Amino acid sequence: MTDFTIAEDFPRSEIEFDARFSNPDACYAYLFQLKWPDGFACQRCGHDQYWFSSRKLYICTSCQFQNSITAGTIMDSSKKPITYWFKAMWWFTTRKSGINAVNLKELLGFGSYGTAWTWLQKLRRCTIRDRREKLSGRVEVDEFFIGAARSGKRGRGAEGKTIVAVAVER
């Protein structure tokens, strides 16, 4: 299985995160570095010169192609500020107990539960690797049941519970 490591100084706390990504310019600069680590290159013609538009587009000076830093990402065509996306990603990846749509709606001040739910679905889809290898070596497996408390039988025989199985390669 491929090892995934963070190759940079990842914020260790929410305070560090906020200091680093509290404004849109910092977020866009971070995405620019990820997309073009060796400097801008137009995705259409490969030219390395651009001008930056007020709509946050990198426009090639050679072919006038509009390169978007968020194109092809879960943030593509979003009307919400990029800082909201970064904060949602931070909470999604660092909260031990996870985050649900109701929490995200309240934390970001969304007017719609549907928006928060859609964002979380997009984030969850990002955690699935296509063409992933089967688990091998030392694998730990566990199962548990989720569901509201109900009267009647408890534990494994309880009606209306959903079983969740989890496996991880160590």
Order of H and E elements: HHEEEHHHEE
Cα radius of gyration in angstroms: 21 Å
- As residue ranges, the low-confidence spans are none
Mean pLDDT reading: 89
The end-to-end distance, rounded to whole angstroms, is: 10 Å
Write down the overall geometry: elongated
User: β content, as a range?
Assistant: 15-25%
Distinctive features:
three-stranded antiparallel beta sheet, alpha+beta, 170 residues, single chain, 5 strands
Describe this structure in words.
With 170 residues, the protein is α+β, with helices and mostly antiparallel strands. Among the domains are: 14-35 and 70-126; 139-169, no CATH class. The protein has 5 helices and 5 strands. A 3-stranded antiparallel beta sheet has the order 1-2-3, with no helix packed on it. A two-stranded antiparallel sheet has the order 4-5. It starts with 13 loop residues before the first helix and ends with a strand. The relative contact order is 0.09. The mean pLDDT is 89.
Topology:
Blueprint: H1 14-21, H2 24-35, E1 50-52, E2 57-60, E3 66-68, H3 82-94, H4 101-108, H5 113-126, E4 139-146, E5 162-169
Antiparallel strand pairs: 1-2, 2-3, 4-5
Short description:
With 170 residues, the protein is an alpha+beta fold. It is 32% helix and 15% strand.
